[in-house]
Design a protein that fits this description.
This protein starts with a strand and ends in a 9-residue tail after the last helix. It folds into 3 domains: about 100 residues, RNA polymerase II/Efflux pump adaptor protein, barrel-sandwich hybrid domain (OB fold (Dihydrolipoamide Acetyltransferase, E2P)); about 60 residues, no CATH class; about 220 residues, 2-Layer Sandwich (Chloramphenicol Acetyltransferase), CATH 3.30.559.10. It is α+β, with helices and mostly antiparallel strands. The protein is elongated. Helices cover about 30% and strands about 25% of the residues. The strands form 4 sheets. Strands 10, 13, 14, 15, 16, 17 and 18 form a 7-stranded mixed sheet that branches. A 4-stranded antiparallel sheet has the order 1-8-6-3.
């Protein structure tokens, strides 16, 4: 037998550390490969990290609540010699692997001389992450119940449930964010047919009159706080606000909403329209779809649109990959399940990786004007506010007139190292045109 270290895996660009949430196995426990080993929390997602091999957990080095860097050894396990040799070989291959060709373009920043610096190879990070155990995908034949519930389960959980006729949609999960663990399925097998759980409600804070209270923020809230401080500390923010006449778009949605729902099975939301408009505007204004790296500007080769979503444990940003390649219907069908997973705490690593720009829809919360903090290390974030009916002066060939219109404010927060007012305004006008082109007679693709 041999002892190998268990490293905290890399989970994507800009994530340098994570919080140990809860150990699901203890020293002395026998574990199978892909058994849930520990719950890990980052500012992007909480997840169950599976055991990389079959063996016995012998030591734990990081306690629950500890913040540890990615790549750190958090535990040790005892495995057979053949498994240890394979693990060692894989580690050497990762260390010696040549960096693949980068996606996107790196250009010299304005008024900045050559730095000769090195750049973080996110393509290699993603390749290694996709090979790690927590990124594995359950085959369709064993994950029907997980898909039906709109959640993704570990391979062990899915196989155990399928073998015993357990519908995972009806199993109450005790893992972080309500995830179903192997122990939950075993308990369900032992107790018989499951009962349908009641929907979870957000935890309400008691209002104690006359007394101050100090509450402990969740690990996700602490990491969000650190991420926001890093953003405002490193990125010189600037803002631009424009108002958009949404009257035609509102009419289009009203006329076609019911037919759209019957045809595609999801609601025709304003978010689908704004996501479509943002993706097209980014394609026409590539400087906004970039990031600042070591004194240079990286123009991103893909438009991967992040959607800021208010979840029970804090703000999360799931990502629509290649959003500029979708029409309204395609975006609506991709957004609906992604937002559901975000709000239920069941996002997976692929759901949150690779974002190049963020859309922040605070209008859904009733806000009419605000400026968001940029999602580091992106170059900008746009906020769409509430659509409000108000009197507006209309300019026409017959003279000026006052009409009641559906108006919405949009605000771009941008990195002033990369983008000046002219580039910000060009992007905002592109976005505005994409939203104002709709009429009650427009066809939705």
């Amino acid at each position: 037998m041999a002892t190998i270290g268990i490293e905290l895996p890399q989970v994507g660009e800009s994530v340098t550390e994570a919080v140990i949430g809860k150990w699901l196995k203890q020293p002395g426990d026998a574990v199978e490969k892909f058994d849930a080993l520990v719950e890990v929390v980052t500012d992007k997602v909480s997840m169950e990290f599976p055991a990389p091999h079959t063996g016995t957990l012998t030591s734990i080095f990081s306690a629950e609540g500890d913040t540890v860097p990615m790549g750190a050894v958090i535990a040790e396990m005892e495995v057979d010699n053949a498994t240890a040799e394979v693990a060692g070989s894989e580690s050497e291959q990762k260390a010696e692997a040549p960096a693949p060709n980068r996606v996107g373009t790196l250009i010299q920043g304005a008024n900045v001389g050559p730095t000769g610096g090195t750049f973080k190879d996110t393509a290699l990070e993603e390749q290694l992450t996709n090979r790690s155990p927590q990124a594995s995908v359950v085959p369709a034949s064993t994950s029907n119940t997980a898909q039906a519930a709109g959640r993704v389960h570990s391979p062990v959980v899915s196989r155990l449930a399928a073998a015993n006729g357990i519908d995972l949609a009806n199993v109450t999960g005790t893992g972080r964010g309500g995830r179903v663990t192997k122990q939950d399925v075993q308990a369900q097998i032992a107790t018989g047919p499951p009962t349908i759980p009641a929907p979870r409600k957000p935890v309400a804070l008691e209002n104690t009159v006359g007394e101050d209270r100090v509450i402990q923020p969740s690990p996700i809230r602490r990491m969000i706080a650190d991420h926001m401080v890093k953003s405002v500390s490193e990125i010189p923010h600037a803002w631009s606000t424009v108002e958009v006449d949404m009257t035609g778009l509102v009419a289009c949605r009203t006329v076609q909403r019911e037919l759209f729902r019957k045809r595609y099975g999801v609601d025709l939301t304003f978010l689908a329209f704004t996501a479509h408009a943002v993706a097209r505007a980014l394609r026409d204004n590539p400087l906004v779809n970039s990031s600042w790296e070591e004194g240079k500007i990286r123009l991103k080769g893909r438009v991967n649109l992040g959607l800021a979503v208010a979840a029970p444990d804090g703000l999360v940003v799931p990502v629509i990959q290649d959003a500029d390649g979708e029409g309204i219907s395609g975006l609506a069908q991709r957004i609906a399940p992604l937002v559901d997973r975000a709000r239920s705490g069941s996002l997976t690593l692929p759901d949150v990786q690779g974002g190049t720009f963020t859309l922040n829809n605070t209008g859904a919360l009733g806000s009419v004007l605000g400026g968001a903090i940029i999602n580091h290390p992106q170059a900008a974030i746009i906020t769409t506010e509430s659509i409000v009916k108000r009197p507006v002066v209309i300019f026409g060939p017959g003279g000026d007139a006052i009409a009641i219109r559906s108006m919405m404010n949009i605000c771009l927060s941008f990195d002033h190292r990369i983008i000046d007012g002219a580039e910000a305004s060009a992007f905002m006008q592109s976005f505005k045109r994409e939203l104002e082109v709709w009429t009650a007679d427009s066809e939705i693709n």
